[in-house]
From TrEMBL:
The keyword Hydrolase applies. It comes from the Bacteria. InterPro entries: AB_hydrolase_fold (IPR029058), Dienelactn_hydro (IPR002925). Residues 33-157 form the Dienelactone hydrolase domain. This is Dienelactone hydrolase family protein. Keywords: Hydrolase. The keyword Transcription does not apply. GO terms for molecular function: hydrolase activity.
Length: 274
């Protein structure tokens, strides 16, 4: 599906369903066949660029589960979203946007979604891809045994601590234990000048996970120079490697990152990309 820049994505090639976990209902957009991958949206929501990435994962032979966590599904990211969506999420009880808050409670719901997706789609396990605001959720979701392929893309939380991780001490110890026990690998991406996902944050992941953390850094000058207004005016730097700042040209570093993520999922989940 080809979308014009600035156009809303109707998401009409996804099946829209309501998923209940522990009596909490959320909308999830589902598409594809094969092992399941939970793709969590970045701020300010399931944008056309997030949906494009979901379709690439789907077309590589996976079932994509795309939960609606904030914003308007399919909306083109405008700068006004800072006031209407970001601020609301930062004070929501579901998220821990600032240092000292620990693991966001919404991750418990996402772990339940991973269990459900694994039961529905089978295979050795489930992939989890976080983006920006949800970036670290892919790591904390790994406390669900079904999650075996976590991808942490440009994690921005906590917003007020460039070297911090959005995770409680208890969950951090449990994740480190699972890495050692199960040989879990964590793939991660950021741009080198990203002020929301810094060098210090990747160093904190490395300190927690050791060699299990595969943090890859792209040059900022390779980023798309014409992202949507939210990323141009609010984010203000190269940030979203496989969505808003991706350059859709064969052989481009951001496209190579996309290919590497799909290959990682294929290796861990047992499906070979086309």
């Amino acid at each position: 599906m080809t979308m014009l820049r600035g156009q809303r994505d109707p998401l009409d090639d996804f099946f829209r369903r309501t998923v209940s976990v522990d009596d909490v209902d959320k909308t999830v957009h589902v598409a594809g066949t094969g092992p399941a991958v939970i793709l969590m949206p970045e701020m300010p929501g399931i944008s056309p660029d997030v949906a494009r990435f979901a379709r690439w994962v789907r077309d590589a032979g996976f079932s994509v589960y795309l939960p609606s966590l904030f914003g308007v599904d399919g909306a083109y990211p405008l700068a006004e979203a800072r006031e209407t969506i970001v601020r609301r999420a930062c004070v929501s009880a579901e998220f821990r946007a600032f240092a000292g808050g620990g693991t966001s409670p919404v991750v418990t719901w996402l772990r339940g979604l991973a269990r459900l997706a694994h039961a529905e789609r089978g295979g050795p396990g489930v992939g989890a891809i976080g983006l920006c605001f949800t970036g670290n959720f892919a790591l904390t979701m790994a406390l669900e045994p079904a999650v075996i392929a976590p991808v942490v893309n440009h994690p921005s939380l906590p917003l007020d601590d460039p070297g911090g991780l959005e995770i409680s001490d208890e969950d951090a110890a449990a994740v480190a234990e699972r890495v050692a026990r199960d040989g879990l690998k964590v793939l991660a991406y950021r741009f080198d000048n990203d002020r929301w996902c810094t060098r210090q944050r990747f160093a904190a992941y490395r300190a927690l996970l050791g060699d299990a953390f595969d943090g890859r850094v792209l040059k900022a000058e390779t980023a798309n120079t014409n992202p949507p207004p939210f990323f141009r005016d609010v984010v203000g730097c190269a940030h979203s490697v496989v969505t808003a700042h991706l350059v859709d040209q064969e052989g481009h570093p951001t496209m190579q990152a996309r290919n590497e993520i799909i290959a990682f999922l294929a290796e861990r989940l047992g499906t070979r990309p086309e």
